[in-house]
Every structure is written in structure tokens, then in C-alpha cells.
Write a structure and sequence with these properties.
The chain has about 260 residues and is mainly alpha-helical. The chain has nine helices and two strands.
């Protein structure tokens, strides 16, 4: 890749249609994968039966999240496979963290969503105050990457809580919630192309909304039929989505976003 002297490569990919397709697949995988561990695997253990399933799942995926973020930060340049592995790590830990806050802590979907929204806004505010921008094409230093991945982790966790809140508490079901979040994403896309609203703000709005969309799609795939799902095996659904992600990442070349000084 040729760069001019005024450009610095980012450690995150250029935002394209392929980016958003892989992102939705990753968020769906985060839901089915997280549930596969906390509900299917740990759900069969004594620990889960005593109420620690979500906490143990969060600890497992939390370690994976921290490990992948450290490897991502230490990498000298953008690596698509490494980047998307880290994204999946944020979606799985986001699923288990949201479920733990909503269910095990007993604060409910509304309380969990409110808390996580406040944490997300605080992360974006601190990032902007510290480095002057939250645009992803500026993510090229260890400090900006730390803010980036912390913000993404909060956004993924918030998205899980929002998806559960809309599908369950609001009574829309998984299909209804998918339509709602799909429509909101369409509004954001139209605003991107036909208004002068900040593209940075619209990116983060879209990034947040893809998570609850993936969450409700994931729940639709693996939840019981009497709960509005297809009752597919969580393991099968997760492996299928992972295979689709791998095909997309390997088939379509992704370039790092460019930072212009």
C-alpha cells in the first residue's frame, strides 16, 4: 500500500459495506457464542445452577478480551484477522457482562442499559477530552487504541442490553426488535449520505445499533420455539457464523483507515 508523507496508517479497518456486514456477523456470533458458554456449557454445571454462570462466563471472556486487545495494541500495523478476533472478543464479553448486570445483579434491562449508556458516553467524552478526536482514522497509537477498545467493549455490552430490553421487556419479540434496529440503521445510513450531520457521530451510532441487531438475530437463532426462536444449537449457530465471518475476512481485502494530518 502506498502512502504519502502526510498519511499515517490506522490500526482499524476502513469503513465500507464489507466492514458493516462482518460487524453484524461478529455481533451475532457474540450473542450465540456467549450464550453457548454461559447457558449451554456452564448451564450444565453446578456453578451455573448456583447463579455464577454469567459471572464465570464474563471472567472467561474478559481474560480473552484483555489478551486480544494487548496483542492488537502490540501489533505494528493493521491485521484484519487479528482485528476481527478482537471484535468478537468484545462481543462475547459484552454479552456475558450485560446478562450478568441485567439478570444476576437484578437491575433489569432498563437499569443495565442506562448504566452502560452512561459508561459509553463517559468513555467517548474522556477519549475526546484526552486526544481531541474519537474518529476511528485517528486510532494509530497505544493510547488511542486503549480508548477505542474500551469504548467498543461498552458499546457491545450496551447493545446486548438494548436488544434484550426491546425483544423481551418491550414485547416486540426477536423479529420485531430486528426490524426496529434495522430501521434505525437505515435512518443513520440516510443521514450519512443526505445530511451534514457529523460522520463520526453517525459512525458510533451505527456501531452501537449493529450490536442489538446482532443480539436479537442471535437470540432468534438459538432460543426455544415457544420463546419465538428457531431453537438451533448454539454451538452449530456459532460455528456457522464464524465460518461466514472467516470467508468474508479472507475473501475481501480490507485496508486500514488513513489518518491525514
Amino acid at each position: 500500500m502506498n502512502m504519502t508523507a502526510n498519511e499515517t496508517p490506522s490500526k482499524v479497518p476502513e469503513v465500507t459495506l464489507v466492514f458493516w456486514i462482518i460487524k453484524v456477523l461478529a455481533t451475532t456470533l457474540g450473542e450465540t457464542g456467549g450464550d453457548a458458554v454461559t447457558m449451554s456449557w456452564l448451564g450444565e454445571t453446578t456453578a451455573a445452577a448456583t447463579g455464577f454462570g454469567y459471572l464465570i462466563g464474563t471472567a472467561i471472556f474478559g481474560v480473552i478480551f484483555l489478551a486480544t486487545v494487548l496483542v492488537q495494541i502490540k501489533a505494528k500495523k493493521f491485521h484484519p484477522i487479528l482485528y476481527w478476533i478482537t471484535i468478537v472478543a468484545t462481543t462475547t464479553v459484552g454479552t456475558t457482562m450485560a446478562d450478568y448486570a441485567d439478570r444476576s445483579l437484578g437491575i433489569g434491562y432498563a437499569g443495565g442499559s442506562t448504566l452502560l449508556f452512561a459508561l459509553l458516553m463517559a468513555s467517548l467524552y474522556t477519549w475526546h477530552r484526552t486526544l481531541g478526536s474519537v474518529a476511528i482514522d485517528t486510532v494509530a497509537s497505544p493510547k488511542s487504541e486503549m480508548f477505542y477498545w474500551m469504548t467498543i467493549m461498552f458499546s457491545q455490552t450496551l447493545g446486548t442490553a438494548l436488544g434484550d430490553w426491546t425483544a423481551d421487556s418491550a414485547g416486540m419479540g426477536y423479529d420485531g426488535a430486528a426490524i426496529v434496529f434495522g430501521a434505525l440503521l437505515l435512518v443513520v445510513a440516510l443521514a450519512y449520505f443526505f445530511t451534514k450531520l457529523s460522520h463520526v457521530a453517525l459512525f458510533w451510532a451505527a456501531f452501537i445499533l449493529t450490536r442489538p441487531l446482532g443480539a436479537v438475530v442471535g437470540d432468534f437463532l438459538d432460543k426455544p420455539v415457544d420463546h419465538g426462536g428457531l431453537a438451533l444449537s448454539r454451538y452449530t449457530a456459532s460455528l456457522t457464523i464464524l465460518a461466514l465471518m472467516a470467508i468474508m475476512v479472507l475473501l475481501f481485502k480490507q485496508r486500514p483507515a488513513q489518518r491525514v494530518h
